[in-house]
Automatic annotation (TrEMBL):
InterPro entries: Peptidase_S8/S53_dom, Peptidase_S8/S53_dom_sf. This is Peptidase S8/S53 domain-containing protein. Pfam families: Peptidase_S8. It comes from [Clostridium] leptum DSM 753. GO terms for molecular function: serine-type endopeptidase activity. Residues 12-206 form the Peptidase S8/S53 domain. GO terms for biological process: proteolysis.
Length: 437
């Protein structure tokens, strides 16, 4: 759409991060229900109806779109009045929020944050209706002198949460790097920290137009909440959260390969543990083209294989295909692909991508490899979707890999990763590889 296209041009031209609210639905249907569980399920299901689709400029391909989730779940009740019933528990999608997908199936909204909740109230003899309840609203300053604060709801409350974290992250990176960070790096780091709460409940969704064909619970969940809520504690603490990040520029149809150490002490932890990869790039866009996004970049993650074997591909590269990357991915993914979710095919049409490996207390052995030091390889590749003036220029990108775990045990994670990370800087390409704390 026109406004979204203009924002994309500004993001690329000025190298800035633009955060947009997903938009709200004002006339929300109240589904028929017999109890609160049924109300929550049906309210969630209708979020994937056509009436909740993103509006301009929330479809921006290079900006960040933020949807709304609920912070509070218990409404305020009053004597001698009908009892209100909230439509969602904590961290559930708000009934008014808009959902994806974005242009060409891109993940939208990328993030969600607190934007308020609504309750259903039914007067005696009347139909149930949605009601704003002050115990469910987000607090804000009042616009009159009658009182200092008031409460309301909307995705316009959600977006500033992400904007605030992005601004803090920009300042922290500028202090560490000695220069203003790129918008790609900020977006990649935000994605590497985002977590989707209530994932199991979200993936039981049934869209209103579902006809009984094969279910797509993961894809539907991504349309609801994207990569989840940005976790600022992951971004700014350094005992049980460590992030590796790098920036580079890729000549299209070539390959960049990153070897990421995974300490055995991390895999042996008897607690929940997580490796999250955020990836961002800023391709040219053209509103006059059906593909819209000029360049497509994506990555795959491999385990239990060395670089020599991974790169021992056969097949001659030509201008018409991507034989090298396609050969590696097709021939090694089934046996050596690391179990990161979602798969690269689900996120490859997005300029901001996230893939996650997470295990409970007794998981982690799937990244071990005989007596070798555990590590993963991140392979990045891309291609041009249509001819454009910048086609021969390398496409800039940023990559962020975050290790995190839950308990208070100190395994010296940062030190162990630093000791094993072999950081090599390219002389001809501006590259940064740091450990962010």
């Amino acid at each position: 759409m026109a406004w979204a296209s203009l924002l994309d041009e500004l993001v690329r031209e000025l190298d800035i991060v633009i955060v947009v609210s997903a938009g709200n639905v004002s006339n929300i249907d109240v589904p028929d229900f017999n109890n609160r569980i049924e109300l929550m399920e049906k309210s969630r299901n209708q979020l994937l109806g056509t009436g909740h689709r993103l509006i301009d400029p929330a479809t921006t391909a290079l900006g960040i779109t933020v949807g709304s989730i609920t912070r509070y779940e218990e409404p305020e009740s009053f004597p001698q009045r009908p009892t209100p019933l909230s439509a969602g528990k904590k961290d559930y999608p708000s009934v008014f929020t808009r959902t994806g997908a974005g242009v060409n199936g891109a993940i939208k909204p990328e993030f969600v944050d607190y934007g308020g909740n609504l309750a259903v109230v039914q007067q005696i003899g009347g139909r149930p209706r949605w009601n704003s309840n002050r115990a469910l609203n987000e607090p804000t300053l009042n616009n009159t002198l009658e009182k200092v604060f008031k409460g309301w709801q909307g995705t316009s409350f959600s977006a500033p949460h992400v904007t605030h974290i992005a601004a803090r992250l920009e300042r922290a990176l500028q202090s560490q790097l000695g220069e203003v960070p790129s918008s790609n790096l900020i977006r990649a780091l935000l994605a590497s920290s985002a977590k989707c709460y209530e994932k199991d409940w979200l993936e039981t969704i049934t869209p209103p137009d579902f006809t009984g064909a094969q279910r797509q619970p993961q894809a539907w969940r991504l349309q609801l909440c994207g990569y989840g809520k940005v976790d600022d504690s992951t971004l700014f603490s350094d005992r049980n959260h460590v992030t590796l990040f790098a920036e580079d520029a890729l000549n299209l149809r070539e390959i960049h390969l990153y070897k990421i150490p995974v300490p055995t002490e991390f895999l042996d932890l008897r607690t929940n543990k997580r490796i999250s990869i955020g990836f961002a790039y800023n391709p040219p866009t053209r509103l006059s083209r059906k593909a819209y996004i000029a360049n497509s970049l994506w990555f795959e993650v491999f385990r239990r294989i060395d670089a020599e074997a991974l790169l021992s591909y056969k097949g001659k590269k030509t201008d018409a295909d991507e034989a090298a990357a396609e050969y590696i991915i097709e021939n090694f993914s089934r046996k050596h692909g690391a179990p990161f979710s979602p798969g690269y095919t689900e996120v490859r049409d997005s300029t901001l991508q996230q893939r996650v490996w997470e295990k409970s207390a007794h998981g982690g052995s799937d990244l071990l490899w005989d007596n070798n030091d555990p590590y993963i390889y991140v392979l990045i590749t891309g291609k041009s979707k249509f001819k454009h003036p910048y086609e021969m220029e390398p496409q800039p990108y940023a990559l962020a890999v975050t290790f995190s775990y839950d308990n208070a045990e100190d395994i010296q994670l940062r030190q162990k990763i630093s000791e094993r990370a072999n950081i090599r800087l390219r002389e001809q390409v501006r590259t940064r590889a740091q450990i962010q704390v």
